[in-house]
Amino acid sequence: MNSTSTTGVDVRWTLLVYRVPSEPSNNRVSVWRDLKRLGALYLQQCVCVVPAFPQCEQGIEAVCTKIESLGGTYNLFGVTEVSPEELDRLLAGFRALSTKEYAEIIEECQTKFVKEIEFERFRENYTYEEAEEIREDLEKIRRWCQRVEERDWFDAGLRSQVAEELSRCEHLLEEFEQEVYRRAGDDPSMAGQLPPPPVSAGD
């Protein structure tokens, strides 16, 4: 029987306990990064848990293979029953992980991305090259957001706010692209579809 939280969430879990040789230290870091990318919740050092969803199971299998290749060992446990209170604590832990990542994305949008456009406006650096660099920065944030959403299994509640920030960034970038076209004498209605920068004779 699966466990159900006081909020009605029904879920099974996979618990991983692992050991990796302390040297070289980058091996431990590599395993930690893989588990972080997977969205695992650490309960203590080298002990973590993920919901028993297919995508998580596949990721855990890959991590276990890596652990063995690094000379480590591991134990996997399927957990189907925990108290409602404990389950609520687990869900809160996963939501806190997602909340932290969403907050980092929001900060990236509100500070680095906005300031980058403001700085280029201040410099009047309205070039195709700069516009494309900023566009790529925004796409990186979008890809980052997609990865966070994929492991936000229990809805941390910040997706709409992140979407608003990304929309704001898109609007600011489109305005910048419009100015690039205006100064280049091209059609501003094509903003967002910048052509490749001219190739110099030496390229």
- Strand content bin: 5-15%
Instruction: Please list the strands of the largest sheet in the order they lie side by side.
Output: 4-5-3-6
Residues in helices, as a percent range: 55-70%
Contiguous runs where pLDDT drops below 50 for at least 5 residues: 197-203
Order of helical and strand elements: EEEHEEHEHHH
Radius of gyration (Å)? 23 Å
N-C termini distance: 66 Å
Number of helices: 5
- The number of distinct structural domains comes to 2
What would the average pLDDT be, to the nearest integer? 89
**What is the total tally of β strands?**
6
Largest sheet: 4 strands, antiparallel
* Shape annotation: elongated
| Helix-strand makeup class | alpha+beta
Layout of helices and strands, plus pairs?
Elements: E1 3-4, E2 10-11, E3 13-19, H1 25-38, E4 41-44, E5 47-51, H2 54-69, E6 73-79, H3 84-123, H4 128-150, H5 159-184
Antiparallel strand pairs: 1-2, 3-5, 3-6, 4-5
Structure commentary:
With 203 residues, the protein is α+β, with helices and mostly antiparallel strands. It has 2 domains: 3-82, Alpha-Beta Plaits, CATH 3.30.70.240; 95-190. Helix content is 59%, strand content 13%. It is built from 5 helices and 6 strands; from the N terminus they run E-E-E-H-E-E-H-E-H-H-H. The strands form 2 sheets. A 4-stranded antiparallel β-sheet has the order 4-5-3-6. A two-stranded antiparallel sheet has the order 1-2. Strand 4 (41-44) and strand 5 form a beta hairpin. The chain is elongated and about 65 Å long. The protein starts with a strand and ends in a 19-residue tail after the last helix. Residues 197-203 have low confidence and may be disordered.
